[in-house]
Design a protein that fits this description.
Two copies of one chain form a homodimer. Chain A has 228 residues and is an alpha+beta fold. Chain A is built from seven helices and eleven strands. Chain A has helices at residues 90-94, 114-122, 125-139, 150-164, 181-188, 192-204, 220-227, and strands at 36-40, 45-47, 55-61, 64-69, 75-81, 86-87, 100-103, 107-113, 174-176, 208-211, 214-217. Chain A binds a DNA duplex (30 and 30 nucleotides) through residues 149-150, 180-182, 190-197, 199-200, 212.
Chain lengths: 228, 228
DNA sequence: CGCCGTATTGAGCGCTCTCAAGCTAGGTGG
DNA sequence: CCACCTAGCTTGAGAGCGCTCAATACGGCG
């Protein structure tokens, strides 16, 4: 464990993981079982297919994508994980990681060993409830992939993104998209060209304004109406 | 609660839910908190959007689809649930059900009140582990939706179906598809016509044989190779 | 400033959709 | 028992959305 001070205000486990030194040895705190904080460079690999599942990870900083490759080399992206979110719940069932997790920017994660975590749950009803809540939350990810057209999928994606990045943005009307067009395309089962064209169309219709990786929402309501 | 004898060999909770009369009052058993067994006719509605989440459901008999409607009236199907599987985990996070669940055939479900269930978890570490395992399992559903073409999606769907229906089929080389072409199409983001044509193509290529709702797998290996 | 990966834009193709017409199976009533 | 009816499935023809391939523009970084 690093000893430098650590701030995790947006972490979904923060209330169970006091980082004050005085609390470090409290066996009911999550940080008592944290194995390590891992620094990962952009494009670095956190986990890969067939890696034995022993821990899941709380993203402290940065963004990750999880994906599997199909035979043609397409990255079938399952999800994106932002700072504060937890990665790896799927592998509790599969035993081995069935996907790769790669950092989209320099990142830091907290490694939480699953067996130790289960022990902790027995003594911490509140944490148990929290954990189940977070797993349920993950079942609600990826709904934007369900829509039928490129317009709907991208509009829903942008809205989802704006909600999940909210802790890190000064206003909900502007976000910085942390992944490439290619990643968005792989996630939404489109091509980068279609994503780019749809962005341009939204901009032409004055729904958004694009400045490189920044997106300003000009008419959030109308963007909503595209998909629901 | 009904008093008729009940058999749930394939239920994912069966080992925690003794239905012997002698066990009925064991407060550590799941059946001590079951609220009711509900019989639902084909096309019957188990839950609908904005219904308050209080219970989840173990499917005892039959098959369900969960879906939300988009503005154009498309059923965006999220998942199918077969006998033995658990439905409703998503709503722990959302508080209200955000989707509809409709029976595809006459069905029976066990209603499990969530608050009581949480109480039970505190005293039942094994059940807790089991529950987390099942939630993780659900995170691994729907992977066939990720593939890029109609061929891959349908092939992956058929293989997934054959695995999940295994407890109810004499051989893994033959299944009875419990949902309509329209439902499959909605699930895979295709049209019924495309689903039908792709079935026909697979049959023409001697990968499967279709007899109405029955599908015989002639070359399961080659079907696999279509998508991975 | 120049390089290279990424993003945008364009043109044409093809997979999937739309619309429409038969076909099949299962249910109903005479 | 059979004719009919209806919903669901299959098949066909043509259209269109998104893909492929290609050229150009942009932007981050040395």
């Amino acid at each position: 464990m690093q000893t430098e001070p650590f701030f995790c205000p947006s972490c979904q486990f923060s209330s169970f993981c006091e980082t004050e030194d005085s609390q470090r040895s409290d066996p009911k705190q999550l940080n008592s079982i944290l194995k390590q904080r891992i620094r990962i460079k952009k494009r670095g690999v956190l986990c890969a297919p067939n890696h034995k599942f022993r821990s899941f990870y709380a993203v402290n900083k940065g963004t990750f994508k999880t994906f599997q490759m199909d035979q043609d080399g397409n990255e079938l992206i399952r999800n994106f994980y932002f700072a504060g979110e937890i990665l790896g719940f799927e592998a509790i069932y599969t035993q081995n990681y069935s996907f790769s997790a790669v950092a989209l920017s320099d990142a830091i994660v907290c490694e939480i060993p699953y067996e130790n975590f289960l022990d902790l749950l027995h003594h911490q009803c509140a944490l148990q409830k929290r954990f189940i809540y977070l797993m349920s939350q993950q079942l609600n990810l990826g709904l934007c992939q369900n829509y039928t057209t490129a317009d709907k999928r991208l509009a829903a994606f942008l809205v989802d993104l704006s909600l999940r990045l909210q802790p890190f943005t000064p206003t909900i009307y502007e976000i910085t998209i942390p992944m490439s067009r290619q990643d968005i395309a792989n996630y939404l089962r489109l091509t980068p060209e279609t994503v780019s064209r749809t962005f341009s169309k939204f901009q032409k219709n004055k729904l958004i304004k694009i400045i490189n990786k920044k997106v300003k929402f000009l008419k959030l309501k109308e963007l909503h109406e595209i998909f629901e």
